[in-house]
Amino acid sequence: MSKKLNKTREKRGKQLVLSIVFLVLGFMLAFSYRTIGSKEKVLDPEQSDLFQQEEQYRAELIDQQERNKELTNELLEKQKDVRSFEQVFSDKEKNHAILVEKARDLRLLLGDIPSKGAGVKVTLEDAEYDPSVQNPNDYIVHESHVLRVINELKIAGAQGMTINGQRINSNSYIKCTGPVIMVDGRTFPAPFIIEAVGDPKVLSPALHLKGSVIDGLLRDNIVVTLEEMKEVQLPAIRDEV
After folding, report:
1. What is the pTM of this model?
2. Could you tell me which residues are beta bridge partners of residue 195?
3. Which sequence ranges form a coiled-coil region, renumbered to this chain (predicted)?
4. Helices 200-208 and 143-155 sit at what angle, rounded to 10 degrees?
């Protein structure tokens, strides 16, 4: 009885061992199949080409991004150069405009071109006197009186002036001859009318300063009339010639 029982146990033990062996073999076969299948899948030619193409596109994209960065930096440098050029050009334009304006002002002072604009008119007249009592020279306008007015107007910024319609410039000469004055060779009797183009709000106060030109003329018995003009027209010297 015991021998029969032992044989039964040995048989069951062998079956159990075989079952475990087959189970392990099955697991190993399944794992091997999956591994081989995955390798075959990775090594699939179509998928391999797609992978290589993707890597190529990625590399090209990186190169393009680097190139775009270089072009952006280059564009910024060009824009900086353009701004510098524009600034230089603007400065040259401003300097040119300033030079043109200075040249125009110089031509106005020289009397080379006509001048028209607001300004002032100063009239100098001889005062009344009694020849039997007073010295007549103390009551007439001399070139010194005219020059005071002209110099003060120049300092105040007058762009151009005339004396009795005769345009004057920096080379003009004024000489007194008795009751008349000579301006650049032309003789004019009193009253002497000095017209100047410039800002009346500047020229007029300059002549009216306390102790300035008009006060001095009045002390010399000169009759002075000052008018602010909306428009004064001065001819060019060549026009007179």
Report:
1. 0.56
2. 121, 162
3. 54-88
4. 130
Structural domain contains residue 92:
no
Full residue range of the structural domain in which residue 25 is found: 2-43
Q: What pLDDT score was predicted for residue 87?
A: 80
Q: Is residue 68 part of a domain?
A: no
- What pLDDT is attached to residue 72? 84
Is 104 contained in some domain? no
* pLDDT for position 44: 56
- ∠ CA(191), CA(160), CA(183), 5° rounding? 45
Domain shared by 121 and 210, yes or no? yes
Residue-level pLDDT at 241? 42
Helix, coil or strand: residue 168: strand
CA distance 137 to 178: 8
Scan for tokens 């797609």, then name that residue.
50
Q: With H, G, I as helix, E, B as strand and everything else as coil, classify residue 124.
A: strand
E strands present in the chain: 115-125, 160-163, 166-168, 174-177, 180-183, 186-189, 192-197, 223-234
pLDDT digits (tens, 9 = 90+) for 105-146: 666 666 667 888 999 999 999 888 666 666 777 778 889 999
Domain count, the chain: 2
What pLDDT is stored for residue 98 in this prediction? 76
Are residues 224 and 117 both part of a single domain?
yes
Tokens describing residue 99: 């030079």
Q: The CATH number of the domain where 231 resides is what?
A: 3.30.70.1880
In sequence order, what DSSP letters do the residues of 191-215 get, joined into one string? SEEEEEES-HHHHHHHHHSTTSHHH
Point out the least confidently predicted range of 24-33, 83-92, 200-209. 24-33
Do 38 and 128 share a domain, yes or no?
no
Mean of pLDDT over the chain = 79
